[in-house]
Design brief:
Structural class: alpha+beta
Strand order of the largest sheet: 3-2-1-14-13-12-11-10-9
Number of helices: 12
Shape: elongated
Number of strands: 22
Helix content: 25-40%
Length: 462
């Protein structure tokens, strides 16, 4: 592993722990793979707020629409075996569909451009309002015409991926979950994954989902153990962060080992449709989103299940895969995955700390909150760990001596050009003066705040 990546991973662990704490999220698991091998796996918070069960990296999550990439890999594997073509009309493989649905191609279903309804006439299956559709119910809804004309725009459809699950069953002659387990999960040694909750062993640790704090006034625990039935191929997979990262890592065209040919992987990643109305520029291929964040071109997918939000990004140029799983409906997984990219980019650009700067580190506090000293190369950044990009507008310190430095770059409202000084005791650095601001360890600032502002005390002039 390159030195810069090791240094980045160290900071990512600390930053994400802080993020989970200040956000009030129930829990989060992160996994990072480099060249297909897991180099970071960490868990924060709780698997179940009601029971107080602590979250571990071995807890399985509902990874929801990440499942679509598993299904697409299955379709591409069958294509490599010459058992189907992407321009096959789906009606060639599944009967009793509406004529306009039957003419949709497998490629259109994979890229969400067949124009199909998203979740059916009653999407309560995604809000715990009803069970997930069974096969007969799904087929009954697919006897209705598409919602819009095919190939007119990107239009997401879980029903479309449910239909792809039926295609796999039709071609292979066996149930989707057993085929997926044998042909995709087992060859990739995904031992902590299952096609659906119903296939997960009862003794396996499983993270429960959680609601928002509103409207109840507290986070309600959501069981999250719904069988997804005929929607399994769209949203059923249960997995750890590590297994999810391993699966997506091998989809990169430059992955050293993969279940699919390079040609198939390139076809999955190829930007076929721009996703309109998105906050940032994004595209979709065959079950894979793609975009550019923090200067990195990436591909991957996200997931939303009742009680869970997840996100995976693969950065082929750096051979890095990031998976973030959260167990709340307002989970911060997308933002945290992007934050990790910003951190990786900073370390990749500036390099690992030198001998001169490497001990200029740690989290330091004032009444206003925390700042992180993060050493890179010959300089030190003053990062804000509460931000999703902790290095935005970050001041830079040039180290001039063992305990002295100067702020050589800072925003206009900050302290550009001013001095920095570390204060030492026998046990080490006890405080730092950043220009005129004194920053100290958390325990010191906490004790001082509790002493100066005791609970229940009112100001005399109130």
């Amino acid at each position: 592993m390159e030195p810069w990546l090791g240094a980045a991973i160290g900071y990512i662990k600390d930053w994400l722990a802080f993020q989970v704490e200040v956000s009030g999220q129930p829990g989060c698991i992160v996994a990072i793979a480099h060249r297909g091998e897991i180099v970071l796996e960490a868990a924060y918070g709780h698997a179940n707020l009601d029971s107080g069960e602590k979250l571990t990296p071995r807890h399985r999550f509902r990874i929801a629409s990440h499942t679509k990439a598993f299904t697409a890999a299955g379709i591409m594997r069958l294509r490599e075996q010459k058992r189907l073509k992407l321009d096959d009309p789906v009606g060639d493989h599944v009967a009793d569909l509406h004529p306009d649905v039957a003419t949709a191609t497998l490629g259109q279903l994979l890229s969400h451009t067949a124009g199909l309804i998203r979740d059916g006439k009653d999407s309560g299956q995604f809000t715990d309002g009803r069970p997930y559709l069974g096969k007969d119910e799904l087929l009954a809804e697919l006897k209705l015409p598409p919602a819009i004309a095919p190939n007119s725009r990107f239009k997401y459809s879980n029903h479309g991926y449910g239909l792809l699950g039926l295609v796999i069953e039709s071609i292979t002659g066996e149930p989707y979950p057993s085929w997926l387990q044998r042909e995709i999960m087992t060859p990739l040694s995904l031992r902590e994954s299952a096609p659906d909750m119903a296939l997960l062993g009862k003794s396996v640790p499983f993270a429960r989902g959680h609601s928002r704090v509103v409207p109840v006034g507290r986070r309600v625990v959501i069981p999250g153990d719904n069988p997804t039935n005929a929607i399994m191929a769209a949203a059923g997979v249960v997995a750890t962060a590590a297994d999810t990262a391993r699966f997506f890592a091998q989809l990169a065209p430059n992955a050293r080992k993969s279940l699919l040919t390079v040609a198939s992987r390139r076809e999955m990643i190829r930007r076929q449709w721009r996703v309109p109305q998105d906050a940032e520029e994004a595209h979709y291929g065959l079950a894979l989103m793609s975009g550019t964040t923090a200067g990195f071109d990436w591909f991957g997918h996200g997931g939303g299940f009742q009680g869970y939000i997840s996100r995976t990004s693969v950065i082929p140029a750096r051979e890095i895969t990031i998976t973030v799983l959260t167990n709340a409906v307002d989970g911060w997984a997308p933002g945290w995955a992007n934050g990790i990219k910003f951190i990786l980019q900073a370390f990749a650009t500036h390099g690992a700390p030198s001998r001169r700067t490497r001990d200029w580190t740690g989290r330091w506090w004032t009444l206003w909150g925390a700042v992180d000293l993060v050493p890179f190369g010959e300089q030190v950044m003053v990062a804000n760990p509460v931000f999703l990009n902790p290095f935005i507008d970050a001041a830079r310190i040039e180290v001039t001596g063992r305990d002295t430095g100067n702020i050589v770059q800072a925003a206009g409202y900050a302290s550009h050009g001013e001095a920095v000084r570390r204060v030492r005791t026998k046990s080490g650095v006890s405080e730092i003066w950043l220009a005129g601001a004194r920053v100290r360890p958390e325990r010191v600032v906490r004790a001082e705040m509790e002493r100066k502002y005791p609970k229940g005390r009112r100001r005399k002039d109130a």
